[in-house]
Specification:
Elements (H helix, E strand, L loop, with lengths): L4 E8 L1 H17 L13 H8 L1 H24 L8 E6 L6 E8 L13 E3 L7 H13 L3 E4 L9 E10 L2 E14 L7 H7 L7 E7 L6 E15 L5 H7 L5 H34 L7 H21 L4 H8 L3 H28 L6 H15 L3 H11 L2 H20 L1 E3 L41 E3 L13
Parallel strand pairs: 4-10
Antiparallel strand pairs: 1-3, 1-11, 2-3, 5-9, 6-7, 6-9, 8-9
């Protein structure tokens, strides 16, 4: 066995497995029609005589094995990152059931080069260009349009007749007359901006381009009818009073500067942590285990599906609308998923080499915050995490947070010009509460399929090499 797998040997005693066999026969009975019995009402002895005990035990194994395996992972705190290879080693016909599970686990790395990192982030100071951009946005609210005789340029508004055709048929939504279009907006296809930039009144444009419906190339015919430019009013006290609550231009500009400063200073912590994460990811030189990348892709797809459902959609309809296959969307996520996996491995390695990964006080503080956020007693939070098998993840999260903060404390953080960034802006974020901790009335926050360790005797695991894993 290599260094990224462990083996668990599990024993399920006969009495515990007998409960699963009884349940298996009840499920089998629901689908059988036997003379003299209503569906699901035939007693087990009748079913055994009809199909044999082996069929019931086989059904019980298929149904209960994932639960036994999951409880073994929780008991031994195995950091599994992929599907196990399970081999039944005994009890298929009678008595206690034993099986071995060979499990891909997250590798533990050694790391170097993480000390005294130089992290460059966007300056939190406000520059005049940023203020001017906000002023122009306000001025544009009261802009007027002036017809010009010159060729269209970026930002101009052009009046066009446009027709999009595919296979000899007009494409819905791509045919319009007297359509007012901003050059450079990319509102139809990017190729349209390229052709309109430099076009004059009377020009007829013909080109082909891919459209976002993913159904193939579209032939466009465009006639330029007019070119207009925006005239922005000067910023004065009258304009300031019209577009804001301020009576003077000076007060308006001062407020805009303060708002930009507040927003940029609020981003410093996030930008610095992102920079530290990217830096530590670059220090991970091993090939990331494929199981870890696939797991991260799965998580991103689940997040996408959840966001879509919150908008009244789902992943299947999203794929239909975008013309994508499931494998294509997985490939879209792959590069970012690998970076996230490298960050994960790198932060865990930093936590290990800097002795940050075993700190009960830090974990207790983390659980205290969770308790306050959920309104639960801290011991209830702890119990729910343990019962749901999430405590290992929470410990890792605490360690990775500690590693990230250690990197920030140790690093030189500068802006683009090399000026030191105010460390007072590096406030750590609030922890994210796992679902298993959130109050749930019916299940009391505990996975109803996880009934603890009753009846399951977990033998010592066999990790890579000659070492033994403590139960």
């Amino acid at each position: 066995m290599d260094g990224d797998r462990v083996k668990l040997s599990v024993v399920v005693d006969a009495d515990e497995f007998e409960v699963a066999v009884d349940a298996a026969f009840r499920r089998i009975g629901q689908g059988l029609r036997l003379p003299g019995f209503r569906p699901g009402k035939a007693p087990r002895r009748v079913l055994e005589a009809r199909i044999g005990l082996e069929a019931g035990r086989r059904e019980a194994l298929e149904h209960a094995l994932p639960d036994y395996y999951g409880r073994a992972l929780v008991h031994h705190e195995v950091d599994a990152i992929g599907r196990p290879e399970i081999r039944i080693t005994g009890g298929a016909d009678s008595g206690s059931v034993t099986f071995d599970a060979v499990i891909p686990v997250r590798p533990r790395l050694s790391i170097s080069g993480h000390r005294k990192l130089r992290l460059e982030i966007m300056s939190p100071e406000v520059n005049n260009e940023e203020v001017e951009a906000q002023v122009d946005a306000l001025r544009s609210q009261l802009a007027t349009l002036e017809t010009v005789e010159r060729p269209a340029t970026q930002g101009d508004l052009v009046t066009i007749d446009v027709e999009g055709v595919r296979g000899g048929e007009p494409v819905p939504g791509l045919t319009a007359t007297e359509y007012l279009y901003e050059v450079g907006s990319g509102a139809v296809v990017s190729d349209l901006d390229e052709y309109l930039n430099g076009a004059s009144v009377g020009d007829d444009l013909e080109f082909e381009a891919e459209y976002r419906d993913g159904e193939g190339r579209v032939s466009f015919s465009v006639s330029v009818k007019a070119v207009q430019t925006r005239l922005l009013p000067e910023l004065d006290d009258e304009l300031a009073a019209e577009v804001s609550q301020f009576s003077t231009a000076e007060a308006l500009v001062s407020d805009l500067r303060d708002r930009i400063s507040h927003a940029k200073r609020g981003q410093v912590g996030m930008l610095a942590r992102d920079a530290a994460a990217r830096a530590v990811a670059d220090l991970v030189t091993i090939e990331v285990p494929p199981d870890l990348v696939e797991s991260e892709i799965d998580e991103r797809i689940r997040d996408l599906d959840a966001r879509l459902r919150s908008q009244g959609l789902d992943l299947e309809r999203y794929l239909e609308a975008t013309g994508q296959e499931p494998d294509e969307i997985r490939e879209e996520f792959r590069e970012a998923a690998e970076v996230t996996a490298r960050v994960d491995l790198g932060l865990r390695a930093v936590a290990y080499v800097e002795y940050l990964d075993e700190n009960d006080e830090r974990l207790d503080s983390y659980l205290d915050v969770m308790a306050v956020q959920t309104g639960l007693d801290v011991e209830e939070v702890r119990t729910r995490l343990v019962d749901s098998g999430r405590m290992l993840d929470v410990r890792a999260d605490v360690s990775k947070r500690a590693a990230l903060e250690w990197l920030l404390d140790d690093a030189d953080i500068v802006d683009e010009a090399g000026n030191p960034v105010d460390r007072g802006l590096l406030e750590p974020p609030e922890p994210v509460i796992p679902e298993e901790v959130l109050p749930v009335d019916e299940t009391n926050g505990v996975d109803p399929d996880n009934n603890g360790g009753t009846g399951v005797d977990l033998e010592d695991g066999e990790p890579p090499g000659d070492e033994e894993e403590d139960a």
